[in-house]
Amino acid sequence: MGSAKISKALLKRLPVYLNHLKSLPGENRNISATAIARALGLGHVQVRKDLAKISGEGRCRTGRSRDQLIQDIEKYLDFTSRTTSIIVGAGPFGQALLDYSRFENLGLNIVACFDLDPISKQSDSGKPIYSIGRLEFFCKYYDVHIGIIAVPAEDAQAVCNNLVSCGIHAIWNFAPVHLKVPDGVIIRSENLAVSVASLRLQMRANEGTE
Amino acid sequence: MGSAKISKALLKRLPVYLNHLKSLPGENRNISATAIARALGLGHVQVRKDLAKISGEGRCRTGRSRDQLIQDIEKYLDFTSRTTSIIVGAGPFGQALLDYSRFENLGLNIVACFDLDPISKQSDSGKPIYSIGRLEFFCKYYDVHIGIIAVPAEDAQAVCNNLVSCGIHAIWNFAPVHLKVPDGVIIRSENLAVSVASLRLQMRANEGTE
To answer: Which end of chain A lies in a sparser environment, N or C, as judged by fewer CB atoms within 10 Å?
Structure first.
């Protein structure tokens, strides 16, 4: 499979296609690249190219099977297998991520949360929240592959080091801080500050031109 | 001020600089672009250029005042003023955003949450949660500028339309769906599915090369 070489831009569009296809009413229906492009405000040449890459060439008149396309995109994005993951940080944000049911459809199986000082033993949906002291044993026993960081910025590097020393090689960081990881460890950071700044600067620019 | 013309890449680096500067111990200290670059794993030419843009040229020997640099970045990113914002969707994720205290440091003042069927009248931190029926009155009375969408994908477009009709011209969308907005309305979507897919595809690529 060529999905390791998938471009960043295509990677951004594929979940958008997927959501759109899943949101369409009716079963066993067909859909054309042009209709998808129109609904999503994208160029039809782009959409046709993307879909051809994922799902082969479509037919001119009948379009593509919606269900087949959903299957192909999910397979391409590897949403059909499961990656065992844990969260460190049982604050409101960490627990919201823990209970966010949609992650399972994306192949992310978040099995537990860890905290320095857990106030509750489980989340609203019943997932376990453990003391951080149990992290190492848990990671090795359950073969955890992704560690999600949802602690304050000042604690994030220590948590990151702890996760790496527990054998975790992929980190998803929600703390607003730059984390250092050894070679071979994958890190992805969500920086909501960038979004807030971008939104507010765009607003100000628009106000300036009105 | 030139911040309306700020490049995307610089916009991503500025909050990272800011967090780093704030995390440094000690008061009234000076810091050089080289030290910042080293700490964050960035090129020193890049950092020097960025800081010169935001804060003027630094001095070769003494470096820059850390506190002045923090002030200049916050001013550049407009984090020192406040934008009144509301959230629609009082599920765990919406409430986590509502109570995320760090947003205030970014100039985002989230004053209330709205839901079709509010289970509670306030969040853990005491912010009000209202029925969606009160949205229009509230937005006009309190001069709300940003609407944050934290509802399921299938409800997001209707909520978005509602926000726009209430006079809101900037939308921050956490629902995993493409939203259509009229010209002049700014929209920014966070798509966590893209992050999950990217992280898992990178992991798979790494496993393939080991």
So the answer is: C
